[in-house]
Hints:
Blueprint lengths: L3 H9 L9 E5 L1 H7 L1 H8 L26 E4 L5 E4 L7 E4 L27 H13 L5 E3 L4 H8 L1 H10 L2 H24 L3 E5 L12 H21 L3 E5 L8 H6 L4 E3 L2 H4 L1 H8 L4 E5 L5 H4 L2 H15 L6 E7 L5 H16 L1
Helix pairs in contact: 5-6, 7-8, 13-14
Amino acid sequence: MLTPRENWFRCVEFRGPEWIPVDVAIATATWMKYGAALHEIASRHPRLVPVSDRYFPPDAASMAGRYSGGESVDEWGCVWRNVHPGLEGIVVGHPLADWAAWKNYRLPDPFAPETGWPQDWEAAKEQVRKTKEAGNVAWGSADRFFERLHFLRGFENLMIDFIEGPPQLGELIEALEAYLQARVDKWIEAGVDAISFGDDLGLQDRPMVSVQTFRRWLRPSYERLWRRCREAGVHVAMHSDGYTLPLLPEFMEMGCSIVNPQDLVNGLENIAAVCKGRVCIHLDIDRQSILPFGTPEQVREHIRRCVGVLGAPEGGLMMVMGIYPDVPLENIEAVLTAFEDFCLS
């Protein structure tokens, strides 16, 4: 039997995996809501929710900063407001809302622990080695790009910037790309298998920016960063929520190995038409309708249909399920069982 890492590479590279890789991400707020009852369900599915992931009660790190109640200021100077502890809040204060602040603004140290960087880099490199040796995929993370821009400027300001093109915008993008490049280079040095990028670029029914705007302001930086990874033999995974269908061909052209589109927002058949057989699809399973509001039978049928539309013997399909507090316990059980029956067996 293949190790998870070997199977993952076969899936990503269309070389015939033995099973469909599946990730389950249970939000801290969900653990807070259900507690021992959720732990009991998770214990029945150890392959999907290992003991190390069953963090109940929540640890301090999962409840700090933008995940805590009230307001907090992060290392970028952004003010976060949270009304639901255990879920990520929203940015309500933007340090570069006025470009006059740019002259004296300094980005944080990309390797500071406050940015999510490992406190002990040598230990992190050793963990990469041990992870691969144990037969698991070793990941690095590059941090946000588009989201960081609108966190710093404010969304409306950034949309106007994309139209007017002030020189400060180019300078900020250049500085942020250098910040991300430093992190990418470090993870490549550590020998990771893949590096994850993540920016929500979609609304419910359209991208947040046009393809033309994406190409002018965002694509060049993404492309340089991704090329750096691919030339080093490291796979690139891009997460982006919302309707991103028009941008998926851009991601593929830029060298992305793994795209992470939401299923029903984009449409399974649409995703298949654009991506199937061309790039590995890490399908983000519905969290708006079927999982929170459907029956267990509907949840199971949805997973079966996802596999039927996007799966193939040669690979190219992985699935991820984010489980949030609005999902009833019986549907959590249903999706875990369906993953085992349709993906892992």
